[in-house]
Amino acid sequence: MLFFQVYLICICISIVGELINYKLLYSTSKYNSLKKNIIVAKKKLELEEADSSSNVTKQKRKIAQVKAQLELYAKESSTIQLRALLISSVLQFFFMYIIGSVYENRVIAKLPFTPMYFFQGFTHRGLEGEDFTQCSALFVFILNSMSAKPIIDNLFGFSLPKVSTGRPEWVTNPEGFVNKFLSK
């Protein structure tokens, strides 16, 4: 029962962290304009690549300009994502400290196996004794961070659209590259 209590607290912490990220980053006009610019530039690139009526050199120049614009937007989006990661990390460490101090020396769960040596520091942290099948609250918090937090992040859907970073097509879209190669 204590396991579910700690896990629900961790889920609430993840939601609070995402709401704080929303308030500090995702609700700003800079973020919203960047998101809109990326979407417009991607559509413009698709239209330019599909257009075959104009001059080839002129079309290549336009495509290069749009790609350069997308690379600039990619740099801006990486700084925003870095800020979000920094805020999330600070909040996670803060809440990890709080959970560790509230549930110190309390067994939260019992594993049906003895974990490998290098995992015992996570699973048994803050607990006394030599029974390494006992789990601490910090282990549950780490499990939540790896399992539930990415799901919560996707549910809120604050991420920017994906921007190609100038990588070759065979890296970014291998199936399309192979199909294009085989159709020639």
From TrEMBL:
GO terms for cellular component: endoplasmic reticulum membrane. The keyword Protein transport does not apply. The chain crosses the membrane at residues 6-26, 84-103. This is Calcium load-activated calcium channel. It is a multi-pass membrane protein. The keyword Nucleotidyltransferase does not apply. Keywords: Calcium, Calcium channel, Calcium transport, Coiled coil, Endoplasmic reticulum, Ion channel, Ion transport, Membrane, Transmembrane, Transmembrane helix, Transport. One of its GO terms (molecular function) is calcium channel activity. Residues 31-76 form a coiled coil. It comes from Smittium simulii. GO terms for biological process: endoplasmic reticulum calcium ion homeostasis. The lineage of its organism: Eukaryota, Fungi, Fungi incertae sedis, Zoopagomycota, Kickxellomycotina. Belongs to the TMCO1 family. It is found in: Endoplasmic reticulum membrane. It holds the Pfam family EMC3_TMCO1.
